[in-house]
Amino acid sequence: MRILILEDTEGLGEAIRDQLQDEGYAVDWVMRIEAAESCLRSTRYDLLLLDLMLPDGSGLNFLQKLRKTSSFLPVIIMTAKDQIADRISGLNAGADDYLVKPFDLYEMTARVAAVARRYSGNPNPNIILGELRVNLADKTVCLKDQAIELTSREWAIFETFIQKPGQLLTRARLEDALYAFGAEIESNTIEVYISRLRKKLGKGCIETIRGMGYRMPQK
Amino acid sequence: MRPISLQKQLVLRLLIVVACLWVLGLVIATMQLNEELNKTFDSALQETAERILPLALVEIYNREESKLLQQLPALGAHKERLTYQVRNAANQVLLQSHTAQQHDFNLALRDGFESQDGYRVFTVSAVQGAYFIQVAEPLSHRREAVLHTLLIMAIPLLVLLPLCLLMAIFLVRQVINPVTQYGKQLALRGAGDLTPIIPEHLPLELEPMTQAVNQLMLRLQTALETERHFTANAAHELRTPLATMMAQTQRLEKTLSDEASRLKAGQLVVTLNHLVSLSDKLLQLAKADSSGLLTDKPENLSALLLLIVDEYVRSGKHDIRLQLPEQVLMACIDADAFYILAKNLIENAVKHGDANESIHVQLSNKGELRVVNACEPLSAEQLKRLHERFFRASSNTSGSGLGLAIVEALVKGIGAQLKFLSPATDSKRGFEAVIQLPIQ
């Protein structure tokens, strides 16, 4: 899952970025609206963490503009504005959640996960797909009641699939999910991880659609 | 000392002044009456003497024994008001009216009026001072006449005085009424309503007072606004550095490999959490203690409560059951004040309630907000002390002990009623906070 952070406070943005990266998300962190706009134009993000008071404008206006473009991007506002009127205007502008600073980093990641789940169409962190039982909150996978250990990179790819079962995912989309783990994505990286996942979860867990991408069958 | 009502004062003073003036009038009238009556009676006395004298002299001359006393009998039985006697120069009584014997007028034989032993006597001489007639009239007769007239004059006064009192009450009440209305208008205002008052039909003399009150309200509003801005700004300015500190410390804790250092970083996070919560609570308390918690525009309490509970539900850590009224509940309460109020109650329930049991939040049609959590029942002593600032019922839980004090200050500010119950209604355990909100 690829996340964009728009936060102008250096220490805070850095900590948020590091925390999300630790959780296995691919993260881009920018400090200005202009930079965020250029990121959104070039990359497909799964979530935006948005500060409201930014050096080059209001985060709220940016959100309103974003919502006018009929974007399906989930947005979590994180701000020091704690007045109820601010919350209401934030949520009314199209935010999916509202986090008031200061917040616990673990609560933030829980909220990121919750919003992502809601967007995937299933807010329940427990997903049952055939013989697979997945808990998105705990990041645990069970196959036929047997716990399966996944590395964080494997989980990043697997989570992308599990949140969109039955959907075709391109190689670039999967690469975005791995972006967090550095720049060493080579031409066969995705194949390597998919073959590892097939080995752990069974051959039929991910289908290859030749020339287009991959898909997790909806069982 | 209880202040005396303006109306009572006016009526009382008016009545005293009227009664005094009437009494003064009566006294002056009595004096005048006395003088006039005296003149009239004196004149009558003189006339009588002068009329009787020639007749008496004829009577005396016609007598065989002129020097013998002769008493004239009454023609019919009657009370004699005027008595007379005729004397000669040697002071011998020659003629008397029938009751004159009972009175002994030993006055010097000198022409004119004289008073003696309760009688007014007029003496007049004839035949070159050879004979004198003395006509006497009791002074009590005059006093009676004056008293009688006085009584006749006083009776209407006694009847009119209560009527005067009623009229005074009615008129004073009419004049005072706009002032009373103005007072009521002021008293009926919500604590947050600082708009100028434009009173109707208020006397001209009170205009400077209403202007002063309106100016005071304006100044108060400015001061309140400054205070509110300061609280909001202070909260905002504190939050970002605190957030950075907290996030960096949490990151530090996570990246440290040395167990002892990690423990220290963990403690730092706990302290920071406490600092964040304390600064939050102190700012909330500042808001709660400031007035202006009521607004002119009614807020939708149901929607606000839904938003607050939703925030807790989103965090996924707590099971909160919300029950909202069928109709939309509106109240002129500042949205932030209500938010802080409800949040503190829920936070309290989360902190002190049994972790595995749900918290019930209920808003009734009548504006009763209930927050119930499961826990061991509190003692009466603990319940009583819950209102105190920095008091914590349990030393095991973290917290500043300010949550319920904030709730209490807010409840007072919005004119609501607060009750703490433990055990909760229809239960043997639990804690229940009930607030009766001033709904529209």
UniProtKB/TrEMBL annotation, chain A:
The alphabetical list of record keywords is: DNA-binding, Phosphoprotein, Transcription, Transcription regulation
Name this polypeptide is given: Two component transcriptional regulator
Q: Which residues carry this modification: 4-aspartylphosphate?
A: D51
Give GO BP annotations, semicolon-separated: regulation of DNA-templated transcription
DNA bind region: 124-218
> Known InterPro entries for this protein?
CheY-like_superfamily, OmpR/PhoB-type_DNA-bd, Sig_transdc_resp-reg_receiver, WalR-like, WH-like_DNA-bd_sf
Pfam families given for it?
A: Response_reg, Trans_reg_C
A GO molecular function term, named singly, is:
phosphorelay response regulator activity
Q: Which PANTHER family match?
A: REGULATOR OF RPOS (PTHR48111), TRANSCRIPTIONAL REGULATORY PROTEIN TCTD (PTHR48111:SF67)
Which residue ranges does the record assign to the OmpR/PhoB-type domain? 124-218
| Domain spans labelled Response regulatory | 2-116
Q: Name the domain of life.
A: Bacteria
Annotated signal peptide: none
State any GO CC term: cytosol
Automatic annotation (TrEMBL), chain B:
Q: Which reaction does it catalyse?
A: ATP + protein L-histidine = ADP + protein N-phospho-L-histidine
Top-rank EC class of the record's enzyme: transferase
Q: Which Gene3D superfamilies does the record match to this protein?
A: 1.10.287.130, Histidine kinase-like ATPase, C-terminal domain, Sensor protein qsec
Task: List all membrane-crossing ranges.
Answer: 12-33, 145-172
Q: Mainly localized where?
A: membrane
The listed locations are: Membrane
Q: What Pfam families does the entry give?
A: 2CSK_N (PF08521), HATPase_c (PF02518), HisKA (PF00512)
Its membrane topology is listed as: Multi-pass membrane protein
Descriptive protein name: histidine kinase
Its Enzyme Commission number?
2.7.13.3
| Classification of source organism | Bacteria, Pseudomonadati, Pseudomonadota, Gammaproteobacteria, Alteromonadales
Occurrences of domain HAMP (ranges): 173-225
GO CC entries: plasma membrane
Which controlled-vocabulary keywords does the entry list? ATP-binding, Kinase, Membrane, Nucleotide-binding, Phosphoprotein, Transferase, Transmembrane, Transmembrane helix, Two-component regulatory system
Native organism: Glaciecola nitratireducens (strain JCM 12485 / KCTC 12276 / FR1064)
GO MF term set? ATP binding; phosphorelay sensor kinase activity
